[in-house]
Amino acid sequence: MSDSTAKILDGKALSKHLIGELKERVLACVERGVTPCLAVVLVGEDPASKVYVRSKERKAAKAGIATKDHRMSADTSTETLLGVIAELNADPAVHGILVQLPLPEGIDEQRVLAAVDPAKDVDGFHPDNLGLLMLGRPRFVACTPQGCMRLLAESGVSPEGKRALVIGRSTIVGKPVAQLLVQANATVTVAHSRTRDLEAEVRQADIVVAAVGRPEMVPGAWIKPGAVVIDVGINRLEPEQPGAKGRLVGDVHYASAAEQAAAITPVPGGVGPMTIACLLANVVEAAERV
Ligand SMILES: Nc1nc2c(c(=O)[nH]1)N[C@@H](CN(C=O)c1ccc(C(=O)N[C@@H](CCC(=O)O)C(=O)O)cc1)CN2
């Protein structure tokens, strides 16, 4: 039994609520002849990507957002994929384009992401959109970082003046979330694989955003009492690991961290569902701009 007093930041419930709220905006678009539409491009057979794409399509349907499916084989060339993106860019019925990551080896991911029309880049991965975020004039903000900030707001703790630690420096999560925290007036440190003393960094942090993809690498004992923990990691334990049975865990050891933290996101049911809600909000925004 845990004697946790932490507030659980329920991303599943919040995402359901946000998707529900989108319905009215979708209806307003439809009334003026624009049905928000997301093109979903999935290349290859990655099982997790298939699950995420299915979930995005199901939730889009719940909000009244249309989807256009593009499934392509793992041996698709960069050129072929660029051709599909060019068609979607030119299609006025498509408002948002999502290229599910990771792409199979051999495809030039940077070229592909840069080929998406920035006005349809609902994932916020295009260099223009990343640049606008850096300038503090965001157009589309990447969905997981947005979801993190929304969950942080739910904690009731303002980032202003707080020490925030982002663990991980990926372009799709670590860097943009660090930028959003800076813009929210937090004092931000970004830790990564070469950080000398991660424990010391975590111990000082009022806000911890963990996005490294290493199961339970942050023990609860490192968490500063009263901190807010946003766990982006979604790691499936191998069935042979003790007590695992294919269980999903975050980058933070949840049970022990919940004993220290003021608020914490669970895995599953935390940041993951928020990624999808924020994606759909971006699609509606793109359609509203038409
Ligand atoms: N084009 C993109 N590719 C990827 C993104 C992205 O934002 N855009 N993010 C991740 C994967 N992802 C969305 O695509 C994603 C990951 C996890 C979840 C989620 O709801 N997870 C559940 C658990 C689901 C499970 O059982 O595996 C949870 O955390 O509760 C949603 C979306 C990489 N690729």
From TrEMBL:
UniProt cross-references to InterPro entries, sorted A to Z: Aminoacid_DH-like_N_sf, NAD(P)-bd_dom_sf, THF_DH/CycHdrlase, THF_DH/CycHdrlase_cat_dom, THF_DH/CycHdrlase_CS, THF_DH/CycHdrlase_NAD-bd_dom
Keywords (A to Z) from UniProt: Amino-acid biosynthesis, Histidine biosynthesis, Hydrolase, Methionine biosynthesis, Multifunctional enzyme, NADP, One-carbon metabolism, Oxidoreductase, Purine biosynthesis
Reaction(s) this enzyme catalyzes, per UniProt: (6R)-5,10-methylene-5,6,7,8-tetrahydrofolate + NADP(+) = (6R)-5,10-methenyltetrahydrofolate + NADPH; (6R)-5,10-methenyltetrahydrofolate + H2O = (6R)-10-formyltetrahydrofolate + H(+)
GO molecular function terms attached to this record: methenyltetrahydrofolate cyclohydrolase activity; methylenetetrahydrofolate dehydrogenase (NADP+) activity
Pfam annotation, one family: THF_DHG_CYH_C
CDD domains in UniProt: NAD_bind_m-THF_DH_Cyclohyd
Residues engaged in binding NADP(+): G168, R169, S170, I234
Tetrahydrofolate dehydrogenase/cyclohydrolase catalytic domain mapped to chain residues: 9-123
EC number annotated for this UniProt entry: 1.5.1.5, 3.5.4.9
Pathway per the UniProt entry: One-carbon metabolism; tetrahydrofolate interconversion
UniProt cross-references to Gene3D superfamilies, sorted A to Z: Leucine Dehydrogenase, chain A, domain 1, NAD(P)-binding Rossmann-like Domain
Family recorded in the similarity comment: Belongs to the tetrahydrofolate dehydrogenase/cyclohydrolase family.
Quaternary structure note: Homodimer.
Name of the protein in its database record: Bifunctional protein FolD
High-level lineage: Bacteria, Pseudomonadati, Myxococcota, Polyangia, Nannocystales
